[in-house]
Amino acid sequence: MVRKILVKTFIAIVLIMLYLPIVWMIVFSFTDTPSFSNWNGFTFDNYINLFTGQSKNAELIQSALLNTLFVGFFVSLLSTILGTLGAIGLHAIHNKRIKAAYSTVNQIPMINSEIVTAIALALVFNLFASTFKINDGSWGMTAFKLILAQTSFCAPYVLLNVLPRLQKSDNKIYEAALDLGCTPAKAMFKVVLPDILPGIVVGALLAFTLSIDDFVITKINVTSFDTLSTMLYGLKNGKHPLPADIRALFTIIFFIVFALMMVLYSPRKKTEKDK
Amino acid sequence: MFKKLLSLPYALFMLLFVLLPLALILVFAFIDASDGSFDMLANFKELAKEDALGKVVKNSFIAGFSTSAICLLIGYPIAYYLTKKEFNKKGVMIGLFIAPMWVNFLLRMMATKAVFSVLNVKLGMGTVIFGLTYEFLPFMIMPLYNTLLKIDKSYIEGAGDLGATPTKAFWKVTVPLSMPGILSGLTMVMIPSITTFAVTEIMSNGKMMLLGDFIYSLKADSLNMAATISFVLLLFMIASMAITNKYDKDGKGGRLW
Q1: Structure pTM?
Q2: Residues of A in contact with B97 (CB under 8 A)
Q3: What value does the mean pLDDT take over residues A5-26?
């Protein structure tokens, strides 16, 4: 009995440590002070100003948000296409060596330390820029670079979410479709894709979340291009690192990501029950 | 055949943006930063001359080892008790420990720093280790939780039947059987915490640098030098991967999501 109380206390203390800063930020997003320390009355002004574009960092927030969503959307799209095709192909390959090569390459972006991945990508972009004489400073090139860089670590997550779906689905239906006169491409769209769609959706959402959350690889591979993460980094040296409008913005993002996670994790629970 | 060909775009992409970049690290680590000639040792000699490096390496090891040790000390009991139904009804609790990972880490660090400044805590090595522990605790809890969950309870009951006290059964059966999780957790905390970038800077108010911050600062002057340190880190990583793979044959211990 005593042990049970001790364990619960321990778990509670660690959880409080983990959530205190986040909760503190959410609470202080409803008051209009630059710092975290003094409560200046309850208000929705931070949120209203955010949407009407009247807050202090409005321009910064607007461009960072647009850049982040733009890059995130295309990273998610490209990762989903590459990862899904990769999974379908990998599932059809039975050569053990090729399979092992794929799984090693998939693991690299997950295990490799982010800063090493980032430097490695910077080397590649430098090489491409000097070989093809590309001026990589423009907004378009920067966004393009970022999309490629982030896709390199997001696509493997899509592949790993789609692959289990394929392993569960019955290949005979695809073959039957071929026997009944479907072209392979048509059979793919009509039979295989609907079957693995849940895995693809989860993979796409995961890629989007990973993309908007990325900091290290983004920061090292871009100059004069702000995403939400690099915008936060830019604010770190200010007297008050988290001003009121930024707190409100990230409170909204926190709840969106929270909702996304609920979506991401609920289908997985169902598949576990299926077993 | 048609299906197999579908994996080509993925393979090509990974070749260009995962394998080629790593290969370039190998190449650039051995290309002299000053004149662009091939030289096995030039960059390493140059690195040895950096005054800051000694301090950075020392701080990285202190921070890396303390963070891993603290994460293990906090993470093991949490993972252990959360595998028991009475503390983790419907798996909600384990979710609560993983969820903070989905909040941008810069935001969490800056919020923590702001809370520290309200509480008048002095920023330094202590707060850096706190920040790193906060950041990487889920990476310790998850592999431990997965390994502990897989341990066959009949081994522990068997130890009890043969006369071992619960404490003894824990140390002689549970801990050795959870070794793959411990190793996997240690690698997943140690290397990222040494090479992380920005956490140290924020949590020490820019007074301290770990290897990650150092690489970032080098990158502005010379990508070759950044590649040289990255090369050394890469060797460490391959070594630790080899060790973990040896103990974790099915490779499931390390997966986070």
Answers
A1: 0.86
A2: 14-15, 18
A3: 92
